[in-house]
Design a protein that fits this description.
This protein has helices spanning 15-27, 30-35, 63-75, 94-100, 103-106, 165-168, 175-182, 186-199, 235-245, 254-261, 279-282, 298-307, 324-328, 352-356, 368-372, and strands spanning 3-9, 41-46, 79-84, 112-116, 122-126, 135-139, 147-151, 153-157, 161-163, 204-214, 222-232, 272-276, 310-314, 334-336, 340-342, 362-366. It is of the alpha/beta class and 373 residues long. 49% of the residues are buried.
């Protein structure tokens, strides 16, 4: 049986048109009615690489797309959690992050909870058929929901060529592991992203490609009207279709290639059934990102790891040794001597300790190079 991807034309972000396209795209999938059941808690996982307003640049999943999906889930009787993790964002920034992306206003009137992935801490998830990473450090929020509805934004990418449904789940990975993975080669990066995706695959994915980003994506490219929304229960198949519509040939999107090879989804277009619009009418060739310089040898990568960081720092004069940070630490890398001592080798840099400290004795220490970058 062929894997199904639904495709709907949507020329702009008019709320009525977005709502209709989202509803058709999801309701045409046979899995949607089975998954969206009363009483289930659904995580909506948009792309908030940087909290940008939609009128500034097409960096984030558009708030109208999030609103339309949230309405559909609410009508099905589901509880809603919107969650993501911009790199090194801290729990205290939650309200401003979701407000700046337009999500707070868009979801007004709906019982939606917002959370940063780091706020719940992280735990280890085993990776089936691992390519590079045996264990993924994913947010514990996944333990608190029944399913994930993945909401990627279509963008070109300087390292992975295209970022879509598979890569969007990378936002649920602990910041330290994300940085370590980015020091791999292009091939290694794509394979490691697939590994973290495979550790917890989203049950549904819906892609915002009404306006895409082309050129120097995922954050510094230009807006390009593409005019469609697509959905699938198979994130790999969704990326395969998106890649073709964006003008990429077979084998060019390494995350799709690696995920298909490892058996995490269907990347062969011949085995994918597209329902809805004729895909040929919606294809828009996106301008490719100029590849970033190839990453240095692994030994130099380890050196850079020590030079680029934002990590928790304990102020000895404030610490009372109460142990709240040790209790909150998901990596169990804090010992209590006269004060709290953090083992840097095992620290995930998730800042759960800082949020738990009642004395405000833990702060975010950022390297000079990290500030410049």
């Amino acid at each position: 049986m062929a894997t199904t991807v639904t495709l709907q034309a949507c020329p702009d972000y008019d709320p009525t048109r977005v709502g209709a396209a989202v509803r058709r795209a999801l309701e045409d999938l046979p899995e949607t009615a089975t998954l969206l059941q009363p009483g289930r808690r659904v995580m909506l996982k948009p792309n908030i690489l940087k909290p940008r307003r939609p009128e500034e640049a097409p960096v984030c999943t558009h708030p109208q797309v999030l609103r339309a999906v949230a309405e559909l889930c609410y009508e099905a009787g589901c509880a809603l959690l919107v969650a993501d993790q911009p790199a090194y964002a801290l729990g205290g920034q939650r309200e401003q992050i979701f407000a700046r992306a337009g999500y707070t206003e868009a979801c007004r009137g709906l019982p939606v909870e917002f959370a940063l992935a780091t706020g719940a801490g992280y735990r280890e998830f085993p990776v089936p058929r691992a390519l590079r990473v045996q264990t993924a450090q994913l947010t514990r929020l996944l333990d608190e929901v029944d399913l994930v509805l993945n909401l990627p934004k279509l963008k070109t990418h300087v390292q992975t060529a295209l970022t879509g449904a598979v890569k969007n789940t990378f936002g649920l990975v602990a910041p330290r592991q994300r940085m370590d993975i980015h020091f791999l080669s292009y091939e290694g990066l794509s394979e490691a992203i697939v590994d973290t995706f495979a550790a917890y695959r989203p049950q549904l994915s819906l892609m915002d490609a009404v306006v895409a980003m082309e050129g120097a994506g995922p954050s510094n490219g230009a807006a390009r009207a593409t005019g469609w929304i697509a959905a699938s229960a198979d994130a790999v198949a969704l990326d395969a279709v998106a890649g073709r519509l964006a003008g990429f040939g077979p084998g060019e999107i390494l995350t799709t290639v690696a995920a298909t090879r490892a058996g995490h989804g269907q990347g062969d277009l011949a085995e994918i059934q597209i329902l809805g619009e004729e895909s040929e009418a919606l294809g828009v060739r996106l301008r490719r990102a100029r590849p970033a310089p190839r990453y240095p040898p692994r030994a130099l990568g380890k050196l850079l790891r020590g030079l680029i960081y934002r990590r928790p720092h304990v102020a000895r004069e404030k610490c009372t040794g109460c142990g709240a940070c040790r209790t909150a630490c998901p990596a169990q890398c804090i010992d209590l001597e006269s004060v709290a001592v953090i083992d840097r080798r095992r620290c995930l840099e998730c800042f759960c300790c800082m949020e738990a400290c009642p004395e405000e004795a833990i702060s975010a220490e950022q390297s000079w190079l990290a500030r410049k970058l």
